[in-house]
Amino acid sequence: MARDTGAQCKQCRREGQKLFLKGARCFTDKCGVERRSYPPGEHGRGRMRQSEYRAQLREKQKAKRYYQVLEKQFASYYDKASRQEGVTGENLLRLLECRLDNVLVRLGFAASRRQARQLVSHGHWSVNGRRVDIPSYQVKPDDVITIKPNSASTDVVRDATELTSGVPAWLQADHDALTAKVLRLPERS
Fold first, then answer.
1. Alpha-carbon distance 157 to 51, whole Å?
2. Do the strands 125-127 and 130-131 form a parallel or antiparallel pair, or are they unpaired?
């Protein structure tokens, strides 16, 4: 399984804002962006020359890092989004938001996307009664997401639900039974 194993706080600092890659740590004063608000590296405090290309690249890298997908997978999502009807950017965000690992984070069943990826790949979650172990699984409207009965990770999921402030309008969650339902596709707003 290919994934980025680099320092997460360094990625947040490079983008200049919190991407919440480390879960609960990002809410504390130990967050890398809180400690040092300049980009990492020898030339981090230098003056950056602004250009249109630089702004577009930073936005693409920010989206890649936020959803934790690699370049090849991000390119295939872009190709799929460009073939769909409508605005390509909104289609791309919709595809990224409908990933199972992202949906678990949005529901509050995982503290971070890395934790959600691990929970999914270890087979702790099922969609519509079928075990799913692919973090990039695309959820659809009316899908029901449940945790595997007698799962060893139930305590971890319950701890993560305490960090959640709210669930998006396109999802419905039952934090007591650890089940959720996808009501509709996400909107850009």
1. 43
2. antiparallel
